[in-house]
Amino acid sequence: MRIALGIEYDGAGFAGWQWQTGQRTLQAELEAALSRVANTPVRVTCAGRTDAGVHATAQVVHFDTDAIRTPYSWVMGSNSLLPADLRVTWALETDEAFHARTSAIARHYRYVILNRAMTSALHRQQLTWVFAPLNVEPMNQAAQCLIGEHDFSSFRAQGCQSRSPQRFMHFIHVSREADRVVIDVCANAFLHHMVRNIAGTLIDVGTGKQRPEWVAGILAARDRSQAGVTAPPDGLYFAGIHYPEHFGLPRYPIFDHLPHDARRFSPPVSE
After folding, report:
1. 46 and 128 both lie in a single domain
2. What is the pLDDT of residues 54-112, one digit of tens each?
3. Domain that includes residue 180, residue range
4. If we measure between CA atoms, which residue out of 236, 221, 228, 234 comes closest to residue 204?
5. Are residues 98 and 152 located together in one domain of the fold?
6. What is the CATH number of the domain that holds 32?
7. Is 51 marked active-site?
8. Which of 105, 157, 207, 222 fits as disulfide partner to 153, beta carbons 3.0 to 4.6 Å?
């Protein structure tokens, strides 16, 4: 049977999602725990691989197994074996047509900036600190040019392995919550470092270093050297994934206003 799991983690103590020899990775920790619960080797496929230091509140994985366990057993059994910075939040038996990555219609990332004069003693590795005051209105204004289908080469890491730089941005919104500035980004899929590169660019707008129209010029240039620096991973969260309703996976309200034809913007299986 095929099992889907919801996962959350603090990425500060991991070298990223994917297996790496001699490194502590999320995939290795999760597979080791699931294999013990199943009493047989388990290999998982995730919705989106995250880099070192990146967090998740709503990662999704799937795996195939002959082991018969209740959803409660998959959740509680795994969590009893996992480290404190990695947790399974739900489990669901699904059909073989479901694929954690290729069945996804949209993905939501959230980038959180602590915007005050002093760093945080409690959230040193969970927030990105910017001491200069940020004006969220021009940041949000600048970001709107990214909505729609575009070539995002200007926000793509040099080592990105995706076949195409084309992505469809469903929405992007910049807001302030007290001393935190939050960038919410939703697209069909993301390029390597795409959100962090967008965040670094918008920070330059928020501090007044650049004007809002600068971002549209960067997008049109299709040249990574034209954009801002790559923002740190600390403030980045994989915050939600939208799947077709018939799979019966948990729903996230942030996706409720997506167009009914959003499925046509989903990434190709070959990615």
Report:
1. no
2. 999 999 999 999 999 999 999 999 999 999 999 999 999 998 999 999 999 999 999 99
3. 106-238
4. 228
5. no
6. 3.30.70.580
7. yes
8. 222
